[in-house]
Structure formats: C-alpha cells, structure tokens
Amino acid sequence: MRVTINLSHTYMGDIGINLKAPNDKVLNLFNLHGGSGDNMVNTVISSQGTNALSNAPFTGTFRAAGSLNVGPTGYKSNAATFADLYSVPSGTWILFLRDTVSVDVGRLTRWDITFDSC
Fold this sequence. Notes:
The chain has 118 residues and is an all-beta fold. The protein has no helices and 7 strands.
C-alpha cells in the first residue's frame, strides 16, 4: 500500500498528515518533519518504504512516521503500521492534514492511494 502526496507548503516542520482507514484505525504518515524546508513532490509514504522522513523537500519513497496519539479528535493516530489498517479494505479512506502554525500557507495539490496485490 502506498500514499502519494503533492503538497506545497513553506515550512514542512508545521505539517502533520494522518490516514484514516475504513476500520477507524488512523496511521500517522508524516509528523512535523523537515524544519523550514518546503514541499512534498511526488512523495510516497509506503508500507514497503525504508527511508526515514528527515529533510524537505520530500521526493521519493519513505516509511510512515508512525507516531501514536497525534492529530485532532477523530483523527488521532492509533495505528503503528500500515498492517493495522487492512482489516476492512473497502470503504472510505480519509487523508487528514494539519498545519500546526497559522503563519505559513500551503496547498494540497494531489493525493492518491494505491493498493498492491499480493
């Protein structure tokens, strides 16, 4: 499974991104990484990712941050890995982004989710 994100933002260290699965499990994909760096360009967060998130701009394939208990009510992360999301594959998947500081601006320009067959 992989989530591809294109996001323009002038300070990636302010951004948190969670994915909510149909089984109500929430995985933290991205949690305040990148400091003052800008943007996510064809950034893939994957169940097969091995690279850790560190410095912006983020281009390539990474593993999920996996931070627990981050995000607002209803979207707080409660899953440690992508595997926790798989029990109910059909239904609504929600990508939730938060900007923890209101000074900088950003825009999600595209995202998609891909399920690979085994």
